[in-house]
Amino acid sequence: RQGISFAGLKFDTEISSHLADSLKREHAPEEIAFDLLQQPIPPPLEKGAILSAIAERAAGQAQTIARLSPPLEKSLAEQDLTKLYYQVELPLIPILAEMEIAGVAVDREHLAQLSLRLADEICAAEKEVFALAGEVFLINSPKQLQSILYEKLGLPKGKKTKTGYSTDAATLANLAGQYDIVAHLLEYRELAKLQSTYVEALPRLINPATGRIHTTYNQAVTATGRLSSTDPNLQNIPIRTEIGREIRRAFIAEKPDNLLLAADYSQIE
């Protein structure tokens, strides 16, 4: 962000550890050092620590990380992963960094209009549920929903939980084709989830300095080697429904001469 070009990347302990053992969940320096060197990295300092203590911890971290390079390189070589590491994984780091800094533009006005539309559809689905139930109740309360569905209306009961019979999505999906109230209930839940998870949440994630959303791409999470995306996860924006596609349309190419291209492999396996 300060315009400084980082040109000294020689080795990365997290990426190399993940490549050497992709089934291991943690690849932080502390975890790798404990596994490979049986040596803990100095613990984090308390707030307000003096400069000499901060310098000592930083030096200890650097020394430990430097000692991790030889055993990790050896592990990669033994598994014939050296070429993949140096020619694919390592060069990808600065590319992902540039992508994170660039971010993605979001059409706020489109999301605002979509939020109003969803609010109307959520209200309509809720009214249908209340009409078929014959009363108004807290639709998000599992206890009240159990009472309406299983006691008042006598719907078939599914699996039992500690608090009664389940009203989760899998249980209700089996009943949706037979009972209108369940179909409207599932519609209400789906719309409410899209509203809270995406339509209302995405504008709050726009960086005020850049006007764009900046996700984090993770190279060292999935066992298959795929990237993952967090804070926010931009890889799970829905697309199967009309509303899902409307949410995706909020992501735009900000410059008039640019466009967003969505591409995927078909049956890559």
Give your account of this protein's structure.
It is a single chain. This protein is mostly helical and 269 residues long. The chain has 10 helices and 7 strands. Helix 1 (13-20) packs parallel to helix 3 and helix 2 crosses helix 3. It is elongated, with a radius of gyration of 25 Å. The model has no long low-confidence stretch (mean pLDDT 88).
Count of DSSP strands: 7
Side by side, the strands of the main sheet go 4-1-7
**Count of individual helical segments:** 10
User: Uncertain regions: pLDDT < 50 for 5+ in a row?
Assistant: none
Largest sheet: 3 strands, antiparallel
Helical content, roughly?
Answer: 40-55%
Spell out the helices and strands N to C: HHHHEHHEEHHHEEEHE
Indicate the overall shape. Answer: elongated
Distance from first to last alpha carbon: 38 Å
Radius of gyration: 25 Å
What's the topology here?
Blueprint: H1 13-20, H2 29-37, H3 51-78, H4 82-102, E1 104-106, H5 108-133, H6 142-152, E2 160-161, E3 164-165, H7 169-173, H8 180-199, H9 201-204, E4 212-213, E5 216-218, E6 228-230, H10 242-248, E7 251-252
Antiparallel strand pairs: 1-4, 1-7, 2-3, 5-6
